[in-house]
């Protein structure tokens, strides 16, 4: 796929837009929409590749949806604290402060609808093709339908109700301007459409289709996502009759979910599709959490386990912000790694770090508690002693409880091609790391959630995959532990109460441990109506842990090499000095999260997600509109919509 995409990028420039400011993409049908094009499998493939190419734009999935839109949870923060948390930029928006317009939201809308336009052209072209019944053309058709549904799901997540445009734009623009469609109508439509193409698609690993393509597994997962989103809570433009209103809800823009009968039907549908993935045995959990992320950083597809059910293909040095704008921090130019990265937008929290079991291997991969900085050192290499003024030295972040980098995308694990490029670089260049939309552990956690809801942690169900909710959770949790620690991990899962509410809470926690930083948790918290509550709980956890001795004021550690450039992570005294040890037993030390700092305790803590939960960390408050996690539609869109589109949810522009 990447070779095809590479050629197509050069030929098309990835995305062809008439204007970034258009309400809906208003271009006339392109040369690729002519019937003779869709009577050729080859030329049809280039149209499908255009859709994949659209997904590599910064305003779609290379940066914004890979990094920004999932921020603002109990463990994932945008790097806007204090005074910058109200800025008219991503730093304000993902703290839920919308005082001024953030132009990139309007650009995201335009690029996402341009992707939908390309999908519409492909779908219509294939429907009119003399080859439409051929296996390959059906596969192309299924891909276009699923990618369109994926983009619509994300538009709904960002904006709420949006226009549903399922046909290409006419040359006279007669169908270009449309008003909003109720989100439930859109989701119902997408569920039916994606279900209708599942059998057209191959499983990953067959017919040359990899996890960089939409396959049968992703189509099943997408239906489950759509159905569970439809069944969950959402903030509404107006109250809907027969729906359940949440206790924490705005009187004008209520947070509601469908009635129980509708929810059960939707969740039954989701369970069947999740079970289809599990029983297929095509996708499995990689036994090593480290290897899962090593392969992603190496740009290698996992053809053995195929844990990544769908990953949007990026292209090294062309697209992909993961590893640069989010990831392990290279703080300065070094001899070993070359040019520094930004890794600035996405931060994790001290309460998340300390919530992990100390033997959980996910902790130190997810939470990068140190960064690489240049330092002048006398080092020995190949029996030669030299002075390296740009030696890469791992040094701890220190007292930054809301500034932990996410280490899942780690330059130290990236491939030789990236390193060769970075050693020569003097400016930002793209990593090519794929954006993973669904991983198999998510499927297992969703499955556990639904099985628990229907039959409890240990019951069986005819629509299930032959495993209980507890077994699904066990697979996710125990994978994270080394062989010597698996018995304790098994004991933890076995010890979770059989009470449905208690087991659900364990799933919510596992969701954070497994998925933190990946932009997935926010959407589950929203449909559970737990987003604001969990953010407030994080703030309370930080304050209590600061007082109860959970955090250390000073941590001690040893180096794993004679040149003292690499920290032995197993030696770090995160939980205090071990019995019989003193500070003199360690090579170095650093201040840590227990060192009280008024800026962190008051200014920064209060500002986190202040537009959603209030700016007093000790009091559960709310912004102008309760539960307003949606972003406003940009004026570049509303002003060119011929009056069809206006902002809602209390937005004034």
Brief write-up:
With 653 residues, the protein is α+β, with helices and mostly antiparallel strands. Helices cover 41% and strands 9% of the residues. It contains 24 helices and 13 strands.
> Could you describe the largest sheet, including whether it forms a barrel?
4 strands, antiparallel
Mean pLDDT score: 93
Number of helices: 24
Helix content: 40-55%
Q: Per the principal axes of the C-alpha atoms, what is the gross shape?
A: globular
Beta-strand content estimate: 5-15%
**Which runs of at least 5 residues are low in confidence (pLDDT < 50)?**
1-30
Question: Radius of gyration in whole Å, from Cα?
Answer: 25 Å
Structural class: alpha+beta
Strand neighbour order, sheet with most strands: 1-6-10-7
Q: CA-to-CA gap between the ends?
A: 41 Å
How many beta-strand segments? 13
SSE blueprint:
Elements: H1 2-12, H2 35-38, H3 41-54, H4 58-62, H5 64-68, E1 76-78, H6 90-93, H7 103-127, H8 135-159, H9 183-197, H10 216-231, E2 234-235, E3 244-245, E4 255-257, H11 260-280, H12 289-298, E5 308-312, E6 346-348, H13 350-355, H14 362-366, E7 367-368, E8 370-381, E9 384-396, E10 404-406, H15 416-424, E11 435-439, H16 440-455, H17 469-479, H18 486-494, H19 500-515, H20 521-527, H21 531-548, E12 554-557, E13 588-591, H22 598-607, H23 610-613, H24 635-638
Antiparallel strand pairs: 1-6, 2-4, 3-4, 5-11, 6-10, 7-10, 8-9, 12-13
Helix pairs in contact: 1-3, 3-7, 3-8, 7-8, 8-9, 9-10, 10-11, 11-16, 16-17, 16-19, 17-18, 17-19
């Amino acid at each position: 796929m990447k070779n095809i995409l590479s050629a197509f990028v050069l030929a098309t420039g990835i995305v062809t837009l008439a204007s970034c400011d258009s309400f809906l993409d208003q271009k006339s049908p392109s040369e690729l929409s002519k019937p003779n094009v869709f009577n050729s499998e080859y030329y049809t493939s280039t149209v499908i590749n255009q859709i994949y190419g659209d997904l590599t734009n910064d305003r779609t999935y290379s940066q914004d949806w890979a990094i920004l839109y999932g921020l603002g949870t109990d463990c994932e923060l945008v790097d806007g604290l204090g005074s910058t948390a109200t800025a008219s930029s991503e730093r304000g928006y993902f703290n839920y402060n919308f005082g001024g317009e953030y132009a990139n939201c309007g650009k995201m809308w335009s690029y996402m609808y341009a992707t939908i336009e390309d999908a519409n052209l492909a779908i219509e072209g294939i429907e009119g093709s003399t080859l439409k019944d051929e296996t390959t053309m059906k596969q192309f058709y299924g891909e276009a339908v699923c990618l369109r549904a994926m983009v619509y799901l994300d538009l709904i997540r960002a904006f709420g109700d949006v226009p549903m445009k399922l046909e290409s734009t006419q040359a006279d623009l007669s169908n270009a301007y449309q008003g909003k469609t109720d989100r439930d109508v859109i989701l119902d439509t997408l569920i039916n459409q994606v279900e209708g193409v599942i059998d057209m698609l191959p499983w990953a690993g067959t017919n040359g289709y990899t996890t960089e393509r939409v396959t049968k597994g992703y189509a099943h997962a997408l239906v489950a996502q759509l159905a569970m989103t439809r069944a969950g809570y959402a903030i509404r433009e107006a109250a809907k009759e027969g729906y359940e209103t949440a206790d924490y809800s705005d009187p004008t823009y209520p947070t509601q979910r469908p009635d129980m009968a509708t929810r059960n039907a939707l969740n039954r549908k989701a369970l069947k599709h999740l079970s289809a993935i599990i029983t297929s045995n095509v996708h499995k959990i990689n036994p090593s959490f480290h290897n899962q992320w090593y392969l992603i950083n190496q740009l290698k597809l996992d053809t053995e386990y195929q844990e990544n059910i769908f990953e949007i293909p990026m292209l090294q040095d062309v697209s992909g912000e993961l590893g640069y704008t989010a990831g392990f921090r290279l703080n300065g130019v070094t001899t070993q790694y070359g040019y520094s990265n930004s890794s600035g937008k996405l931060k994790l929290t001290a309460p998340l770090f300390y919530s992990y079991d100390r033997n959980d291997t996910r902790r130190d991969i997810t939470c990068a508690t140190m960064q690489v900085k240049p330092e002048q050192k006398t080092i020995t290499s190949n029996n030669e002693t030299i002075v390296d003024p740009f030696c890469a030295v791992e040094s701890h972040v220190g007292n930054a409880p809301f500034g932990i980098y996410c280490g899942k995308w780690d330059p130290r694990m990236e491939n030789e091609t990236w390193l060769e490029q970075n050693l020569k670089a003097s400016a930002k260049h793209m990593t090519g790391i794929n954006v993973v939309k669904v991983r198999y552990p998510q499927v297992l956690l969703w499955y556990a959630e639904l099985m628990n809801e229907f039959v409890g942690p240990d019951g069986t169900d005819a629509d299930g995959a032959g495993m209980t909710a507890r077994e699904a959770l066990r697979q996710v949790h125990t994978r994270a532990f080394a062989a010597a620690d698996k018995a304790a991990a098994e004991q933890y899962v076995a010890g979770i109460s059989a009470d449905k509410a208690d087991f659900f809470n364990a799933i919510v926690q596992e969701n954070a441990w497994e998925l933190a930083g990946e932009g997935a948790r926010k959407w589950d918290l929203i449909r559970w109506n737990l987003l604001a509550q969990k953010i407030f709980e994080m703030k309370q956890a930080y304050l209590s842990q600061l007082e109860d001795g959970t955090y250390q004021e000073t941590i001690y550690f040893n180096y794993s090499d004679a040149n003292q450039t690499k920290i032995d992570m197993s030696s770090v005294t995160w939980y205090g000095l071990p019995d019989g040890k003193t500070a003199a037993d360690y090579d170095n030390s650093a201040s840590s999260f227990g060192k009280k700092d008024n800026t962190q305790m008051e200014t920064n803590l209060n500002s986190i997600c202040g537009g959603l939960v209030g700016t007093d960390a000790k009091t559960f408050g709310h912004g102008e509109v309760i539960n307003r996690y949606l972003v406003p539609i940009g004026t570049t869109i509303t002003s060119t919509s011929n009056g069809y589109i206006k902002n809602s949810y209390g937005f004034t522009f």
